[in-house]
Amino acid sequence: MLSSNWRNEAGFLICGAAAFAVWLICLLPAPLIDRYLKTKTDGIVRISEARGTVWAGEGYLEFRDNEKPAAPPQHITWRFLPDSMWNGSLGFTLTLNQSAETSLFSIGISSVTLRNAAFQLPAATLGVTIPKLAPLGLQGDLSIVISDMQFDGKQKAGNGRLEWKHAGSAMTTVSPLGHYRADLVTRGPVINVTLRTLNGPLQLAGQGAWAFQSAPNFAGTASVPASLQQQLSPMLRLIAAERIPGEFDIQIR
């Protein structure tokens, strides 16, 4: 029979070990989040210069294409939401660039989910992500909104949108060219893209698909009014085939 003193000492040791384990978990370093995101998103989403802990910290959110930055880094802070554990996940609030708005990020057993996320990027980012567009010297502002995006191994699901506001190009003095929107719907490993013009003299439309870590596949059209053909047609001929004067077919592969 074990003495009561020994049982008490064993109980204290177990409680002490458990408390030490909890303490270690609370101190998990922030760079572990970067490693997790790298694995779950095939290296597309990363957090550089991560500081703090897994539960509360800050760093710079990056989107990468084959390990190369596809957009300027965005300052990010995160805070753990203890109540999220009731749903079987680890939930966090995310704040980008010290904005007053927050996004929700949750980690499940086999998935990562991002909701209500918004990013503001320069239009030149498109030239980095899609090299064919680089010669145009794109100008203006990109607004990326992710309503709900889930990464589950190689399968992705969700939707969002991209808007190109105050669109311009270093190849022409016509500005703005327009305001454009691309709706993004993800199924499996592919993002399906539908592009349309909201307003502006340069009319763009088309559809495409973009598999992660692969080149985009897009087919679209561009239309230029007769009054601007002399200014805009030379620029469009760099990336598109002119079907008739002022009408262009765009193929990106």
Please give a structural write-up.
This protein is of the alpha+beta class. It contains 4 helices and 15 strands. It folds into 2 domains: 29-110, no CATH class; 123-253, no CATH class. The protein has helices spanning 4-26, 31-40, 124-129, 229-236; strands at 45-52, 56-65, 68-69, 74-81, 90-96, 102-107, 112-122, 138-152, 155-169, 178-188, 190-199, 203-211, 217-223, 240-244, 247-252. It has a 15-stranded antiparallel sheet that branches.
End-to-end separation: 77 Å
The residue ranges in which pLDDT falls below 50 over 5 or more consecutive positions are 9-25
Q: How many β-strand runs?
A: 15
| Total DSSP helices | 4
Query: How many domains in all?
Result: 2
What string gives the helices and strands in order? HHEEEEEEEHEEEEEEHEE
Overall pLDDT = 81
Residue share in helix: 10-25%
Question: What does the overall shape look like?
Answer: elongated
Record the SSE blueprint.
Elements: H1 4-26, H2 31-40, E1 45-52, E2 56-65, E3 68-69, E4 74-81, E5 90-96, E6 102-107, E7 112-122, H3 124-129, E8 138-152, E9 155-169, E10 178-188, E11 190-199, E12 203-211, E13 217-223, H4 229-236, E14 240-244, E15 247-252
Antiparallel strand pairs: 1-2, 2-3, 2-4, 4-5, 5-6, 6-7, 7-8, 8-9, 9-10, 10-11, 11-12, 12-13, 13-15, 14-15
